[in-house]
Write a structure and sequence with these properties.
78 residues, alpha+beta, three-stranded antiparallel sheet, globular
Length: 78
Amino acid sequence: MATYTITELAKEFDITPRAIRFYEDQGLLNPSREGPGGRNRVYTQRERTHLKLTLRGKRLGLSLSEIKSLVDMYRSPK
């Protein structure tokens, strides 16, 4: 399974790592942690898709709470 670092995602989507950490704080992303003390964030393809949905919602003018609802629907097994 493909995994990504915060730096790789930031470069791919032309945003800062700080923005990705902000989205994580808002509950839009939930990367796993690796390394000593869990310092390294590891993003899966699913988290990459959540970030893509978040940025698309932002471009459409949705609020973060609206975007979170969309991401939560994507997470739902239904």
